[in-house]
Design goal:
Elements lengths: L4 E2 L4 H4 L15 E2 L2 E2 H14 L9 E9 L7 H13 L3 E11 L3 E11 L5 E12 L5 E8 L10
Parallel strand pairs: 1-5, 4-8
Antiparallel strand pairs: 2-3, 5-6, 6-7, 7-8
Length: about 160
């Protein structure tokens, strides 16, 4: 993966939530010393490689995931979702990553390209919001994507 553009300012500062910043070091985008940008990079590397063995170690036991505000999935649902993409024989590639790291959360925008084994592919912009618990585990994943772009690939 290419190196994402990492915002220098805290996302909390950008949207005007100074209460969360009181008493914090401006660049301390960590939870218990865990670099949230690095954890996010690890997550998307796992999705891209489709080697899901390390995925559960990044997830809180009660993680929830939703796509476009649809019904939530628990950990088993999330695992089934990512495994389903692999089972369709579709590879995943991320590009043009832009990432903002805040107090216990990361917002990443990127372009995702799905490619079938016959070479047919489709790309679209995606926004993912990750929320982390106090142990640095992902407790919520919200993905916003024009999923209709991929309809013809996964039918």
């Amino acid at each position: 993966r290419s190196q994402p553009v990492l915002e220098c300012r805290r996302f909390d500062q950008e949207v005007g939530h100074p209460r969360r910043l009181r008493g914090r070091v401006p660049d301390a985008n960590t939870v218990r010393g865990m670099d949230l940008a690095a954890r996010t990079e690890q997550l998307f590397s796992i999705f891209e490689s489709q080697e899901f063995d390390g995925l559960e170690s990044l997830l809180a036991p009660d993680v929830t995931m939703t796509q476009n505000g649809n019904p939530e999935h628990d950990k088993d649902g999330l695992m089934a979702f990512v495994q389903g993409i692999k089972n369709y024989g579709v590879s995943v590639k991320y590009s043009d990553e832009r990432r903002s790291v805040g107090d216990g959360f990361v917002v990443e925008q990127h372009v995702v390209t799905l490619t079938r084994t016959d070479g047919k592919s489709a790309s679209t912009d995606v926004c993912v919001v990750l929320r982390f618990d106090d142990d640095g585990l992902i407790k919520r994943l919200d993905e916003y994507v024009d999923s209709a772009v991929f309809g013809a690939l996964i039918t």
